[in-house]
Every structure is written in C-alpha cells, then in structure tokens.
C-alpha cells in the first residue's frame, strides 16, 4: 500500500491528514456488512440545515447484490471503469431538493449531502478502507436505472474498498497514484474578513 499523508501547514488530526482518494482497490477483499453500516451511520450523523438530512445513499455491494453493483458500474464513464471495476462497493450519493418539513426548496441540500459524504469517507479511513468519489458518471442514466424521484440530484458515485498496490493500476493512473498530494495555500482559498484577503 502507498500511504500519502497530506503535507499540512499546521498540525491536523491524523484521520484527516491520512484520508485520500486512491484508485488502486483490492478486488479480492470485500467490505463487511458491519463496516458498511458504520460508514452509513457516520453519514447519518452529519450536520444538516433544520436537521433535515437531505442525503440519500444507494449502496451497491458486489458480494451481496451483483445486479445493483453492475447497474452502478454501467453508469461510470469509460476511464473510471478501468479502475473502479475492482471496487467491491459502489455508492451513489443523492441530494433531495426540498425540505421534509414544509416541501419548500432546500438550497442547502447539496451542501449537506457533501457533509454526509465526508463523514462517510472519514469513517472509512478510520476502518482502514478507502473511498474515491467520482463525478465521472452519467447522472441521467443513474436516475433512470435506480428509479430516482424527480425532486433530487444525483451527486457522486463513490468507489469503496481496501487499498491495493499502485502497480495494480494501468500506467495512466499509476503516476497519479504515486504523485505527491497538493493543495492551494491557505491564503489562496481562505480569507480574513473580506474577499481576497488571504488569511495568514
């Protein structure tokens, strides 16, 4: 395995520092049902506006329901299929458009679904699992295939499993897998009291 802890400017918690999104996933190590439930429980306790919990997650476990896994896999773009074929679990995150309590548009639904997805990914990291979230899938195809209602937005398809060696990847992906992780500096994205004034 190839751990890639973030090179941070200040000390952060290990679980955040060590979470990343590898593509090399072991096809021979299924994810236990108990671990799956722990990931979903972590997502369940994410914060949300009015405690509305606008997220929905469709879990497609290859070992428990091959047909649903194949349905999810079939929505992926060709490039993602090259590596995601090894993921024992694919999960589609979905954001509901309207509040449960009054039916009015919930402009925080996507934001809150992202928060739940991060909670899921951090719990996965705590359990020695990896999650790679993908935008490279056909959302309309997923909507039809999974029978999603009109009042929601498919967000990300997540590949879940145990990390494998980078050598298991095609050369196109191997370099990215082994490359150093990078982020913009704090001052480029985080502002002090006013737009564009980088925090020190």
For this entry, give a set of tags.
200 residues; globular; four-stranded antiparallel sheet; 8 helices
Kindly state the percentage of residues in helix. 25-40%
What sequence of helices (H) and strands (E) makes up the elements? HHEHHEHEHEHH
Radius of gyration: 18 Å
Shape descriptor reads globular
The main sheet comes to: 4 strands, antiparallel
Q: Report the uncertain regions.
A: none
| Total number of beta strands | 4
Strand order of the largest sheet: 1-2-4-3
What fraction of residues sit in β-strands? 15-25%
Mean pLDDT: 96
Describe what you observe in this structure.
The protein is an alpha+beta fold. It contains eight helices and four strands. Strands 1-2-4-3 form a four-stranded antiparallel β-sheet, sandwiched between helices.
């Amino acid at each position: 395995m190839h751990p890639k802890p973030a090179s941070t400017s200040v000390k952060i918690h290990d679980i955040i520092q060590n979470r990343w999104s590898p593509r090399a996933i072991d096809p021979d190590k299924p994810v236990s049902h108990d671990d799956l439930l722990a990931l979903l429980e972590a997502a369940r306790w994410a914060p949300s506006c009015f405690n509305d919990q606008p997220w929905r997650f469709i879990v497609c476990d290859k070992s428990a329901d091959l047909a649903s896994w194949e349905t999810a896999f079939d929505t992926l773009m060709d490039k993602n299929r090259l590596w995601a074929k090894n993921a024992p679990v694919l999960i589609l995150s979905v954001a509901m458009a309207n509040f449960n309590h009054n039916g009015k548009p919930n402009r925080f639904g996507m934001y809150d679904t992202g928060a739940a997805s991060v909670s899921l990914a951090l719990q996965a990291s705590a359990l020695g699992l990896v999650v790679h979230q993908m935008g490279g899938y056909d959302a309309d195809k997923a909507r039809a295939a999974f029978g999603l209602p009109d009042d929601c937005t498919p967000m990300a398809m997540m590949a879940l499993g145990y990390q494998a060696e980078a050598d298991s990847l095609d050369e196109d992906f191997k370099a990215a897998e082994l490359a150093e992780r990078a982020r913009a500096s704090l001052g480029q994205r985080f502002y002090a009291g006013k737009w564009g004034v980088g925090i020190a």
